[in-house]
Known about the structure:
Layout (H helix, E strand, L loop, with lengths): L1 H18 L1 H7 L4 H12 L1 H16 L1 H14 L1
Helix pairs in contact: 4-5
Amino acid sequence: MICVLFIISVWFCIDYPASLERHIETEFKVSQSEYGLLYSYFALPNSFMPIIGGIIFDKLGVRRGLIAFTVIVCVG
């Protein structure tokens, strides 16, 4: 059950800006190309963080890696 909630929350966090596209374009008066650039900046770290996270998990182990990332998320 926890695994399913995790997957759904990750999917929602990644696709949430896409659901706000019309609101952001009208509220902040940005064009579609500017919004695409904004979304690209949002998605860029998602290209590199899995690699960095995988290296850290390999060095720390799964249990200590999960604890470390949970603390980082809660603090930051």
